[in-house]
Design brief:
With 278 residues, the chain is an alpha/beta fold. Helix content is 37%, strand content 19%. The chain has two domains: 63 residues, Helicase, Ruva Protein, domain 3, CATH 1.10.8.10; 190 residues, 3-Layer(aba) Sandwich (Rossmann fold), CATH 3.40.50. The strands form two sheets. It has a seven-stranded mixed β-sheet with strand order 5-4-3-6-7-9-8, sandwiched between helices. A two-stranded antiparallel ribbon has the order 1-2. Strand 6, helix 9 and strand 7 form a beta-alpha-beta unit. The protein starts with a helix and ends with a strand.
Length: 278
């Protein structure tokens, strides 16, 4: 079988028709240790029986609905190659807008102190550190498995981030202060039908949903972060596209100023922020 024939055959069986050809190309290129541009240039290359067997095993995982990122074991975020496993969320492109906004907000500060809560693969913490070498970045996650992935990503990228196993704030001492506390916490309702669809079926449920109250972790972060902020410091949290108004209300009730909701790269209201009153 030729490469072009395998791409056509596999993509016709994939669950997401809109991305089927792209997914097939990515998986086949990964399995062959080649680039997608190589696939296109050598589309008429005949695959060996061993290559076909190995590629069929990878492609079948996608047919069953497994996310491409988990099949590859890696995903790109903010131009950084990150290892990902089923213990971590798959970094989303919309979260890159949160990193952009954080970097713009921190621009006037020298050597800012940053805390990333629920770091998962380390995506946000490592993206910020990659752009601000002078920043002191700390990252927490309650999952030891996720932290192992984040630490390995930091080592692979040669980025110095301090990691600790912790729920939202328990690993902090009472006198620690930050210029930015940032988080992409669980915010999906546990009965949301999307939880049974697509990639979400494979991702760690504790990183997706806070339980019956989809706002529970957002509220906890907004309320408790105040005790660990420097004067004029910021809290930024990602949330669902329809949750902005409620999240802004939490910020306002807790006495933050400059409260706003920002748009992601698709133009959806995706994260909100508030600044500590000096």
């Amino acid at each position: 079988m030729k490469i072009a024939q395998l791409i056509q055959a596999a993509s016709g069986r994939f669950p997401d028709a809109d991305c089927a050809v792209l997914d097939a190309e990515i998986i086949i290129a990964h399995g062959l240790g080649k680039t997608r541009s190589w696939l296109k240039a050598f589309a008429d290359e005949t695959l060996t029986s061993q290559q076909l067997a190995e590629l069929h095993a990878l492609l079948e995982r996608r047919v069953q609905g497994e996310p491409v990122a988990y099949i590859l074991g890696e995903w790109e975020f903010y131009s950084l190659p990150l290892s990902v496993t089923p213990a971590t969320l798959i970094p989303r492109p919309e979260t890159e807008a949160l990193v952009d906004f954080a970097l713009a907000t921190l621009a006037p500060l020298t050597a800012p102190k940053i805390l990333d809560l629920g770091t998962g693969s380390g995506a946000i913490a490592l993206a910020l550190k990659s752009q601000r070498a002078d920043a002191a970045v700390t990252a927490f996650d309650v999952s030891e498995e996720a932290l192992a992935v984040a630490k390995q990503n930091a080592a692979d990228l040669n980025l110095n981030v301090e990691f600790a196993c912790s729920d939202w704030f328990s690993a902090l001492s009472h006198d620690q202060r930050f210029d930015l506390i940032i988080s992409n916490p669980p915010y999906v309702a546990e009965d949301d039908p999307h939880m049974q669809q697509g990639d979400l079926r494979y991702e760690p449920i504790t990183a997706l949903t806070a339980g019956a109250d989809e706002y529970a972790d957002l509220k906890t972060i907004i309320e408790r972060a105040k005790a660990f902020l420097n004067p004029a410091a910021w809290v930024m949290v990602e949330h669902g596209y329809y949750q902005g108004e409620t999240v802004r209300q939490y910020f306002t009730e807790q006495g933050y100023q400059a409260v706003s909701t920002q748009l992601d790269l698709a133009g959806q209201p995706r994260f909100s922020c508030g600044q500590r009153v000096e």
